[in-house]
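agent> fetching stored inputs for the zinc ion docking request
agent> found them:
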Amino acid sequence: MATFNFDEYQKQQAARKAASQNANQGERKPVHFMSEFLSKDGDQVVVRFPYSTLSDLSFETGHKVVGVFPGDKFGKFVRCTGDDKCPLCNSQNADQKKKITRFFAKMVVYNPVASGVELCATVWDRPAMFADSDLKSLMTEYPDLTKYLFKITRTGNGKDTKYAILPVNMQSPVYSNDVYKKDFSCLEGIDATRILSKTVEQYQQALNPTAEKVETAPVQEAESTPAKTESVADVMAQYNTPNSPFTTEGVEMVNGEPEVKVVPQVQPVETTSGGTKRYKF
Ligand SMILES: [Zn+2]
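agent> prediction call returned; pasting tokens
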């Protein structure tokens, strides 16, 4: 191994950092978070999902880690390696050891601006049920979701927050194809999972920040703290679902009705989520 002095070492580190930043600049695209659009009671967004079939929906298994990543109050999802090398599967901490499943949704949000609408690549961290029940139910009626526009409406605040997804009337001139284009180009190269969760390597780096940084592909950082306009209760509300693994300040979140209601509704059916009633077409 070559021997080099401390100055040389520092130069190498600086060069490596610059190269990494350049790579990041090249790849970085603007990514929005759902909290920007649905920050308060009554907020609505029109979206288009890039999911054509059920096989487009993929889940992530991982572990919730609290108090390790800087600036993170509510915990971060660290992806499980899926083998016996996963340090979190081997954790002594029962909460960390527990495996949880999330769905990291992505969609195009049609954000109204003075000149019309702006197409925004948007990611949303959801309980697995969002895909397994809500999107799946939508696909029963609308098999290829990419062809349709949906409106997501937030009602309530704090732990009473719910989100409803309704198809929009695409016959209405308001939703003309010219304005609400079917165009997913803003989502190209966007990996919601990488944005909204961490790798085991990043977890280990956060545990031991003075160690040499693990070289990983550039990752766009998810927002780690709630926006100023959002109360803590609002942020907590994002995790207020029966499937949610998230707790805050040591208090288990209240189990309630799943947040998202899908319409049209025909008849109530039992779900697998502990006896709560849900609606299906
Ligand atoms: Zn694991």
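agent> quick read of the result: The chain is about 20% helix and 25% strand.
agent> awaiting further instructions
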